[in-house]
Amino acid sequence: MKHLQQFEALFNHATIGIILCNKDAEIIxxxxxxxxxxxxxxEELVGKKIEVLLPQKYRGSHVQDRNRFYAxxxxxxxxxxxxxHGQKKDGAEFPVEVSLSHYRDEDNIYAIAFVIDxxxxxxxxxxxxxxxxxxxxxxxxxxxxxxxxxxxxxxRTKMLRETLAELEKSKKxxxxxxxxxxxxxxxxxGFVTMASHEFRTxxxxxLSSAFLLSKYNGPDDEDKREKHINRIKDAVNDMKSILEDxxxxxxxxxxxxxAKTADFSAAEYREELQHTIEGMMQIAKQGQRIAxxxxxxxxxxxxxxxxxxxxxxxxxxxxxxxxxxxxxxxxSLNNGPMLTVSVKDNGIGISExxxxxxxxxxxxxxxxxxxxxTGLGLHIISKYAELLNASISLxxxxxxxxxxxxxxxxxxxxxxx
Length: 417
Known about the structure:
By secondary structure, the protein is an alpha+beta fold. It has twelve helices and 13 strands.
C-alpha cells in the first residue's frame, strides 16, 4: 500500500506530462502536469483515443504509427528530426518532445507517453536566429566601415604622392614645400597611429565576440549571447567615436576634444576596464597574460572613454615591448581623493636618458628603434592625461620592465567646463 502511494505521488507530482494508454490507444490515466499542458481535466480524457491530443492534420497518420508501436513496442524518443506538436483543449497548438515506453500486465500491453512542453526552447531558437541576423548586419556594417577607411587611406596616399610631385617641381618655394611635407607626414603618422593603437583593439573585440557568439547557441546561453552582441556594438561605437574625435592628432593638440566625465559605481567601472583588458588579450603574444585588479568600492568620476584609450595604448606598448610568456599587470586603486591606474610589464625597459624625452612627439627610445611604432603613442597618452587633469609617473630600468601610473583626482569638479 505504501509503495502504491509513493507511485501515485510520483505520477501526480512529476514535472513532465505522463499519459497512460491501453492496447486500444485509449487514455486510462493522465497526470496533473499533463492537465496543465493540455488544458484538460483527467476525467474529460479517460476512455478517449490518444489522437484527441494531436492537431487534426496529424491524427490520421498517427493511428498507423501507434498501431505499429503496439505491434512491436520499444522505448524510444519520437520525432527524429521533425517537429512534434500537441493540441490544447482550446485548439491551440504547442511544440512538444515525446518519449514512449511500455509495460505488460498479464496479456495486456500499456503505452506510457512522457511529454515535455518545449515552447521555451523553440522561442530560444528563434532568439538565436534573430541574434545571428543582428550579427550578420553588424558584420556588414563593419565591412562597409573598413571599405570606407581603405578608400580614405587610398585617397590620402594619392594626395601625398601628388603633393610630393608638386614639391619637386616647386623648388623656389622650398620653405613652404618643407612645411607642407611635414604636415602631410604628421597626417600619415596619425593614420598609422590610429590603425595600430585605436582600431586594432575594437576590431579584435568584434572578431573574438563574433567567434564566441557562434558557439553560444544553447537555450541557457542567452546572457552570454547578449553580452557578446553588446561587446560588438560597443566596439563599433568605439570605432565610430574614434573616427569622429581622433581622425588626427591635430584635434587633440587644437583642443577640439573635451573630457566628458561621468559617475560610475565600482562594479560598473570594474566591468568597463575588464572588457578593455579582455580585448587586449586578442593582440597579446603567445603565453602573455594580462592580470587586472581594482581596489576601492567608492564611486568613480572619470571620462571612461579617455581612460580606456590610455589603458589600450599602455597595454599595447607593454605587449609590444615584452617577451612572449610574460606577465602584464593592470592595477587600479580608488582611495577617495585619487584614482590611480598602473600598467606594469617585464619588458625591455627604458633608459634614464630616454625617459626625459619619452612623451615628445615622434620620439623613439634607442632600444626600440627596431620595433614597429610611430613614436606618437605616449605623446597621445600625455594629451589624454591633460584632458583628465591627471599626472603620469614612470618607473623603468633597462632590461627590467616598465611601470606607468596615471593619477586622476576624484575631488575635482566636472572637467568639461
